[in-house]
Design a protein that fits this description.
By secondary structure, the protein is an alpha+beta fold. The protein contains four helices and 16 strands.
């Protein structure tokens, strides 16, 4: 390959630099820990929200935030990458008995394990390699949206959030940073919105804010470094297309690029050796 053949545009990123967390309330922190930490193998954040009212669970550079309240259901599914699917299957077998009576379930699909969390959330676990440059983490979330809304949603992310986005066959894909996507897929049935949220970090913080503020779409002025909006609108018509609370954070937010502790999920009492407890990506994926 000559230098002229490098695809320089493949390296471009848009205004949303990272999708950091999905916030889903859960009614029972013990059951949540059993699913997300013991089962999925992710790491409970040791520094913040480690009591019994809330729990942050780290997976690579992303997190689930799980405050205690009635369960929320993500409208769509959340994709995660785990280091080894065979190891994950063993851990899921291990938690099956104590999960009895909950909605927990899992099935093996062609290229992933389809999991249902104890309260019904759809989480899909992939091995490294399916998503580029993500050995552990949350490469995409897929939001189910009403029919005939995905084109307008694409315009919203292109024009308001200033992200590369594409639209085809009822699906909009929004590029997030260098290794994530926010996906909106039209579906037949969309349940009511229950207030779950996502958190994103943006380079241009004031541009989207001005646009949203002019239209009275800012739902919360949290502080200097964060605001929230809920409605995703067609910038052409102003029509509300769907709802998903976005916690929009600037790059000077205290949590931006915080190094997250990640353990090696394959380590347990029997496999432990000094030094193997920290997750280290084994290969470039
Ligand atoms: Fe949040």
């Amino acid at each position: 390959m000559s230098k002229a053949d490098f695809d320089r545009s493949a390296e471009d990123v848009g205004n949303i630099l990272q999708l950091e967390h999905v916030n889903l309330t859960v009614p029972d922190q013990g059951i949540a820990a059993l699913f997300y930490v013991t089962g999925l193998g992710f790491t409970r954040d040791p520094y913040i929200d480690f009591g019994t009212r809330n729990m942050w669970v780290n997976l690579g550079a992303q997190q689930f935030h799980l405050p205690k309240a009635d369960p929320q259901l993500f409208r769509g599914h959340i994709s995660v990458v785990v280091p080894d699917l065979d190891d994950l299957k063993k851990r899921l077998d291990f938690i099956t008995k104590p999960m009895a009576g909950s909605k927990f379930a899992w099935t093996e699909q062609a290229d992933h394990l389809a999991l249902r969390c104890p309260w019904g959330n759809d989480i899909r676990a992939y091995a490294p390699g399916r998503f580029s440059r993500m050995p552990l983490g949350m490469p995409e979330v897929t939001v189910t949206v009403p029919a005939a809304t995905s084109a307008g949603i694409c315009r919203f992310y292109q024009q308001v959030m200033r992200c590369p986005a594409s639209h085809s066959g009822g699906i909009t894909r929004v590029k997030v940073g260098y290794n994530q996507e926010l996906v909106f897929a039209e579906g037949d049935q969309v349940s009511g919105y229950d207030g779950h949220h996502i958190a994103v970090y943006v380079a241009d913080f004031s541009g989207p804010h001005s646009w949203l503020q002019e239209r009275q779409l800012i739902s919360e002025e949290s502080d200097q470094h964060q605001y929230r909006f809920v409605s995703i609108v067609d910038p052409d018509s102003g029509e509300v297309l769907t709802e998903l609370e976005h916690e929009v954070r600037s790059m000077s937010h205290a949590m931006a690029n915080r190094p997250l502790v990640n353990r090696n999920p394959a380590v347990n009492f029997f496999t432990y050796q000094k030094g193997n407890e920290i997750f280290t990506p084994g290969e470039r994926v």
